[in-house]
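Handout, section 4.2: multi-component inputs.
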Amino acid sequence: MKEIPALCRVFAYLSLLTVGGGMAAFPEMKILTVDVHHWLTFPQLVHIYSVGQMAPGPNMMMIVAIGEWAGGILGAVVVVIAFFGPTALLTFSVGRIWNRLAKRPWRSSIQQGLAPVSIGLLLAGCFTLAKGAVTGLDTATIAVATLLILLKYKINPALLVLAAAVIGALSFVPK
Amino acid sequence: MSEALQPSVQENAATRQGTLAESATVLQVFLEFLLIGATSFGGGVVAYLRNALVAKRHWLDDKTFVELLSISQSLPGLNATNMAILVGDRLRGISGAFAAIIGICLPGGALMFAVGMFYQQHGDHAIATAALKGVAAAAVGLILATAVQLGKRSLERTSDLVFVALTIVGVNRLHQSVLTVLAVVGLVAIVWYRPGQKKPSMP
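Output:
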């Protein structure tokens, strides 16, 4: 119960960092949920984020699990509202006045400027995730194989992640 | 290809506002987004959205869809939820927006709630840890693939690559907060592409 205000603050803040996608907020999410508030460990965050990639819908619903661990059902609900509320409100408002904004010349500058920054944030988030996920030659092989297969073939990524789970379960169990 | 389109589609495009408002109730909006939220496995929700809203339901035409997508991408927030808000609002105003975002979040949220409880009880079992190790490695590959695909589409100039690199260095090497990097590099990039700058012609 005492974590509720902190959950609300942290996830409302993270919400505003999700430029170009949820991954942009990952480095900050690691610092705040793991290092500052100790709601979970870094390996747990890496695990739950990765499992979340298999879930349908918006790819950040893993935040529900963090909310639940830190604050029960109420925590889960608070986290969802805090994480989606601010950006939903912003998008709703901008959507209503977009046609007026559309004629401003700066709008296309903003789009052009934010495109490379959001890809940079995606990669920065990916490197933070990789620090916890790619720990040796075995995991590096899975990561590279996934990358190459996805670039070469049109296949549902969820199936590849599932296949990696099976490979992991068969080969990574300590003897 | 456009010759083959049904007359109803053309009618829809012609009398967009009127027909659309009548063709979707709040409940229909909710159920459609619930279905997308429950079936869009493997990320790439945008493709599922286009398929359902443009191709199947004819609630939007392609031009409007792309326009709403470009709003979604220029604002913070996930594409999936931003699109839900914008489409929901177009179709049914504020209650449509609520119905759409709740619909698209509900299935994945409920699933991750269950996964979270299960993980808490069984996450430290040897087999679970081993499987998760594989899953996490694959997730890294998946995100890299997304970055490459996005990059191919939107990075055209050397300056774009410089801004990508500056962003990564700022977050991962200089350990600045995402907000600082976003404010500094984002602002420089926007000013760099300020109005009046000539876009290089496509090769």
